[in-house]
């Protein structure tokens, strides 16, 4: 689920005293497009500006006193090297944080990463949740297929850890349903491990919802995340989840998932086998997951952002 959908949920649940509009930058994310965005972006008139996408640099064109920057992750700092990394760090982290007064992160883990790489004061960053985008499924879940379960994998970027998932599933009768554009290397490792899979892309919201509904369990053993939305999406659909024993997946799952070491194939395999074989444990994950997702109700999350917005308005009146 995209960040835009998440923040549209927040906007829809703000009180009537707020009127919300969404504005996009005119160009894409290539280097030349970044320059063009900085040159040609024209902000609309507003009492508060909130930058929520992966275009943090655009706050350089917004006023300091009433602009909020929400940072989702700093994964690019682990991927990029040399001059490119230096430029990205300045545009996406250092200069925006130096300019603005109001910064939010979507998890304690992301906050810690920001402080680690930028060195800003801890009190400058507020941790505010993302909302659950899909509606909680109150219908009884379908019968779990213990003989040949369908395992849903949402996302195909390198951090989603598909090679280790493939190795963990080698020899386990199952079918993996993968949502996202796959690489040749990912397909190769799945074939080598003799894992049956199907791949789908460009799904509608309802198709994504049906993918969760038709799965027996959801795997999200990512090596790096800012938040981990698929965890709570799966829990809202009453599906057992295996995810990573690292932050922020630990916090997002709320004790309602099997936590595996994403770098240890046997750890992932053991978690999947336990979910498949242990009926009582599997059912306890589903029950606990439904409790966990209540805290990500869009109305509850919207109150967090509304409190921040009111504080900004108050500061600017004083």
Any overview of this molecule?
There is one protein chain. This protein is α/β, with parallel strands linked by helices and 318 residues long. The chain has 2 domains: 3-130 and 297-317, Glycogen Phosphorylase B (Rossmann fold, 3-Layer(aba) Sandwich); 150-296, 3-Layer(aba) Sandwich (Rossmann fold). It has 13 helices and 10 strands. Helix 9 packs across helix 12. Helix 6 links the parallel strand 5 (150-154) and strand 6 (175-179).
Care to give the gist of this entry?
The protein has 318 residues and is α/β, with parallel strands linked by helices. The protein has helices spanning 3-12, 31-40, 76-79, 82-99, 108-118, 162-169, 184-192, 205-214, 229-236, 249-253, 265-277, 279-293, 298-317; strands at residues 49-51, 67-71, 102-105, 125-127, 150-154, 175-179, 196-200, 217-220, 241-244, 258-260.
Give the full name of the CATH homologous superfamily of the largest domain. Glycogen Phosphorylase B
Query: CATH topology of the largest domain, which one?
Result: Rossmann fold
CATH class of the largest domain: Alpha Beta
Count of extended strands: 10
Low-confidence stretches: none
Number of domains: 2
Cα separation of the termini? 39 Å
Count of discrete alpha- or pi-helical segments spanning 4 or more residues: 13
Give the SSE string. Answer: HHEEHHEHEEHEHEHEHEHEHHH
Can you list the strand order of the major beta sheet? 7-6-5-8-9-10
Radius of gyration: 21 Å
Summing up helix and strand content along with how strands pair, one would put the structural category as: alpha/beta
What is the CATH architecture annotation of the largest domain? 3-Layer(aba) Sandwich
Portion of residues within helices: 40-55%
């Amino acid at each position: 689920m995209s960040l835009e959908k998440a923040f549209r949920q927040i906007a829809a649940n703000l009180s009537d005293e707020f009127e919300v509009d969404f504005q996009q930058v005119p160009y894409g994310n290539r280097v030349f497009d970044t320059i063009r965005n900085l040159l040609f972006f024209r902000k609309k008139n507003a009492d508060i500006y909130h930058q929520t996408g992966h275009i943090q640099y655009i706050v350089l064109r917004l006023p300091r006193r009433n602009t909020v920057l929400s940072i989702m992750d700093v994964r690019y700092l682990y991927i990029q090297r040399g001059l490119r990394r230096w430029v990205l760090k300045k545009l996406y982290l250092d200069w925006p944080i130096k300019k603005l007064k109001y910064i939010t992160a979507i998890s304690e883990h992301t906050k810690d990463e920001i402080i680690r790489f930028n060195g800003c004061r801890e009190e400058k960053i507020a941790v505010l949740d993302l909302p659950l985008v899909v509606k909680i499924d109150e219908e009884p879940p379908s019968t779990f297929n213990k003989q040949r379960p369908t395992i849903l994998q949402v996302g195909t970027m390198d951090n989603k850890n598909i090679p280790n998932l493939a190795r963990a599933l080698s020899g386990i009768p199952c079918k993996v349903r993968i949502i996202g554009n796959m690489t040749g290397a990912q397909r190769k490792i799945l074939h080598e491990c003799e894992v049956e899979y199907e791949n789908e892309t460009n799904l509608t919201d309802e198709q994504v919802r049906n993918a969760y509904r038709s799965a027996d369990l959801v795997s999200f053993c990512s090596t790096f995340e800012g938040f981990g939305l698929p965890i709570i999406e799966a829990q809202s659909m009453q599906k057992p989840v295996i995810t990573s024993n690292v932050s922020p997946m630990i916090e997002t799952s709320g004790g309602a998932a099997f936590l595996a070491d994403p770098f240890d194939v046997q750890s992932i395999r053991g978690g999947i086998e336990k979910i498949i074989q242990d009926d009582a444990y599997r059912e306890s994950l589903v029950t606990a997951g439904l409790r966990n997702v209540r805290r990500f109700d869009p109305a509850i999350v919207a109150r967090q952002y509304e409190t921040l917005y009111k504080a900004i308005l108050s500061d600017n009146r004083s």
